Amino acid sequence: MEKTKFGAIKIDGKKVANDIKQEIAERVEVLRSENKKLPHLAIIMVGDDGASQTYVDNKVRASKSVGFHYTLLRFAETISEEKLLKHIDQINQDDDVDGLIVQLPLPEHINVVRVTDMIMPEKDVDGFTNQNFGSIVSKEQGVLPATPYGVMELLRRYEIDTTGKHCVMVGNSRIVGAPLSMMLSTEGKATVTVCHIHTKGLASFTSSADILLVAVGKPGLITADMVKEDAVVIDIGTTKIDDASRARGFRIVGDVVFDEVAAKASYITPVPGGVGPMTIASLLYNTLQAAEARH
Ligand code: NAP
């Protein structure tokens, strides 16, 4: 395992995600050699937001790289909610499609919850529907949300045991913080504290964490004085900031001040190259599982 120059072991999400993609590609190859149906992922994108386009391009590239079929449906920013729901219904009925994702954010006139909840739960490979969200608590079979699932898989592959540990989750969103905190307490058997924007004295909670997980989107939020010696630190935040020294003119940063926290932590995820690549790997894994369950 690679240590950062600051002391902590780097949790290499890029490498783990590549390992998972390789495992998926091998399973797809077996399906192909047996003349079985290959997994098929459909992606809906509304409008032409630059960041969303990049995420969609990455998902298409990843689908191709593991041998999936894919369909990309693009709609104008002005599409009505009713029309979008109809398209989702058609894909739900299309027996060839195993997984469907609707790239977020959606334009303001469209209700995100209504749209994501229209996706058939078995095809909801982002794990956003209320039914899949509920299955985390009810412990019934469901599709786990991609980013939280990616974090749990990173912890598993680095053999970081969460049982009985104090996990502090900073961020309580519907797609990351809330499901991840539930997964840590159910499947992970951890004692979980959830912090959010109204938490008073954030540092008093973070500094007692054996495992600190941060999904906020505020660069510099977590400094070394807020972290316990030898804690495991998982930085999920991603914020694009201008950087004239980079060819692209920007770079991506997390919520944790990496250098100083890496000097104190036992394990740490970098940004980029930590949780980010795991989200796409989990999406592919969910699609493969959905295909295998349906056929
Ligand atoms: P979100 O919906 O904006 O949620 C942010 C959460 O942080 C909310 O729960 C909010 O509290 C909380 N918060 C805001 N300011 C805070 C503060 N000062 N102290 C403590 N908590 C605070 O964002 P999200 O979708 O969960 O995403 C969070 C970050 O993760 C973003 O940077 C996003 O880009 C990144 N992300 C990365 C991946 C990946 O694959 N790496 C995937 C998804 C998201 P309230 O609930 O009280 O408002």
Please describe what this structure looks like.
With 295 residues, the chain is α/β, with parallel strands linked by helices. The chain is built from ten helices and eleven strands. The chain has helices at residues 13-33, 50-65, 81-93, 112-118, 130-138, 146-157, 177-185, 202-206, 258-262, 275-294; strands at residues 9-10, 40-46, 69-75, 99-102, 166-170, 191-195, 211-214, 232-235, 239-242, 250-253, 267-268. Helix 1 packs parallel to helix 10, helix 6 (146-157) crosses helix 7 (177-185) and helix 6 (146-157) packs across helix 10. The longest helix has 21 residues, at 13-33. NADP nicotinamide-adenine-dinucleotide phosphate (NAP) binds at residues 147, 170-173, 175-177, 195-199, 202, 215-218, 236-239, 275-276, 279.
Show the helix and strand layout:
Blueprint: E1 9-10, H1 13-33, E2 40-46, H2 50-65, E3 69-75, H3 81-93, E4 99-102, H4 112-118, H5 130-138, H6 146-157, E5 166-170, H7 177-185, E6 191-195, H8 202-206, E7 211-214, E8 232-235, E9 239-242, E10 250-253, H9 258-262, E11 267-268, H10 275-294
Helix pairs in contact: 1-10, 6-7, 6-10
Bound molecules: NADP nicotinamide-adenine-dinucleotide phosphate.
